[in-house]
Amino acid sequence: MYMSRKRVKYEKISNEAKEKVLCTKRVESLTRKANELSILCGVNIGIVIHKPSENNAILWPSPEVFGDRLQQFLEFSGFERAKKMIDHEKYLQQRVNDAIEEMSKSQYKKELKESQLLMNEILIKDKGFSAVDLGQLGCLRSFAAQILKKLRLKNDELNDQERQMLTPPVPPSPLSMPNFHMIVSNKDQI
């Protein structure tokens, strides 16, 4: 049986011994994950961990390799680095746009559901339209428009099916029919 982990409060730890132990564990975990990412994705990763109160910094994977990777990164032209950042910005903007669109769809579905419930309440409970305010009337209008749209699409679909059933099948063209005369004459030769 496993014990559940306690939630860590993200604030400065006052006990220096606990802070040092936690920092060591977290650094080990970070470098292990960085190593996995480097191997799995084939990327160069360099990590600098520096505590202002100490003079030494941790350079991962090693000071020499870190220096080489930093030099490679700095050798990229500003244009290349900016290009990659623009791609990232476009990606983030697309994510934001997708989230806004999803939110709009959810809002629209919610309004339709509310309109459906309101319509049921008016028709079933026989309240009438006098108890409905302008906002609710707008919701009912959009609900009615949605129902009409679905009915039109279904009507068009049924009309297309009816046209297909009434249209006689087109006979195949003479070019696509096999030449039976040639087949018979070939049998005679055998």
UniProtKB/TrEMBL annotation:
Localisation per UniProt entry: Nucleus
Record has Transcription as a keyword: yes
UniProt key word Nucleus: yes
InterPro entries (UniProt xref): SRF-like_MADS-box (IPR033897), TF_MADSbox (IPR002100), TF_MADSbox_sf (IPR036879)
GO biological process assignments: positive regulation of transcription by RNA polymerase II
Keywords, comma-separated and alphabetical: DNA-binding, Nucleus, Transcription, Transcription regulation
UniProt-recorded Gene Ontology molecular function terms: cis-regulatory region sequence-specific DNA binding; DNA-binding transcription factor activity, RNA polymerase II-specific; protein dimerization activity
Broad class of the protein's primary localization: nucleus
PROSITE patterns reported in the protein's UniProt record: MADS_BOX_2
GO CC, any one term: nucleus
Domain MADS-box: 3-49
Pfam families: SRF-TF (PF00319)
Protein name: MADS-box domain-containing protein
Natural source organism: Sesamum angustifolium
Organism lineage: Eukaryota, Viridiplantae, Streptophyta, Embryophyta, Tracheophyta
